[in-house]
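Module 6 notes. Inverse folding takes a fixed backbone as the condition and produces residue identities as the prediction. Think of it as a translation problem where the source language is geometry and the target language is the twenty amino acids. Below is one complete input and output pair. Work through it position by position during the lab.
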């Protein structure tokens, strides 16, 4: 446990030296203020301009879903960038044969950031939410968002060789969270084309207020994580 803690603190030290990564960790708070205060003001301005009762309000729940995925996406993105740097410098493979070991390395680079993302989301979402989410909804969204963050991190690590490629893969991998929007806009069976995406089922959970839909989220997320983790370990 001590070696995992030391390795994690080393990652934090690297983050402090990279302003972009440090700013990424603060992004959820800044986005929270934007979502919570700017969007209602924009809604009021739009409804007054077009003389309609609501424009953005029907999609407030979708905004809450995206916010729940933001902290995990940012935290896991940061850890992935640090891991890519270590892979590029050949230090990741070296750390595997130290007392830290492979499992300890994964715990420091994926496990701890994921737990931190879950806790941060569980704290920030009740503060900045736009809809009346229950405690159960908040926990489920935080868990689902955390799993999406891990998937994004593994996609970056698996398909990138350096930080530059990692930035490009990040832009593509974050599209996975867009599956949450499908149930809000497509009501017929064509929506199930994107059912392999865990985020699609998160959207179904909130859109239809059915917690049972979280079961496919966990099953699909674990499947994605196991597949990508195996590819990543083989790569390094």
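Target side of the pair, the amino acids:
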């Amino acid at each position: 446990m001590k070696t995992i803690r030391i390795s994690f603190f080393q990652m934090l030290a690297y983050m402090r030296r990279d302003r972009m990564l440090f700013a990424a960790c603060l992004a959820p708070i800044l986005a929270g203020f934007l979502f919570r205060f700017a969007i209602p003001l924009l809604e009021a301005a739009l409804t007054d301009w077009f003389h309609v009762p609501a424009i953005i309000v029907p999609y407030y729940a979708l905004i809450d879903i995206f916010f729940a995925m933001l902290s995990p996406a940012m935290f896991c993105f940061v850890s992935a960038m640090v891991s890519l740097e270590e892979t590029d410098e050949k230090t990741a493979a070296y750390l595997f044969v130290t007392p830290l070991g492979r499992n300890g390395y994964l715990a420091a680079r994926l496990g701890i950031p994921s737990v931190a993302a879950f806790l941060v989301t569980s704290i920030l979402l009740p503060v900045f939410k736009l809809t009346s989410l229950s405690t159960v909804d908040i926990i489920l969204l935080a868990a689902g968002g955390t799993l999406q963050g891990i998937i994004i991190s593994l996609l970056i690590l698996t398909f990138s060789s350096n930080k530059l490629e990692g930035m490009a893969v990040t832009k593509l991998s974050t599209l996975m969270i867009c599956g949450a929007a499908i149930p809000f806009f497509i009501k017929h069976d064509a929506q199930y084309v994107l059912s392999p995406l865990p985020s699609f089922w998160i959207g179904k959970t909130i859109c239809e207020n059915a917690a049972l839909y979280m079961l496919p989220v966990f099953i699909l997320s674990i499947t994605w994580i196991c597949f990508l983790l195996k590819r990543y370990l083989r790569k390094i």
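Reference fact for the lab report: Residues 151 and 226 are 9 Å apart (CA to CA).
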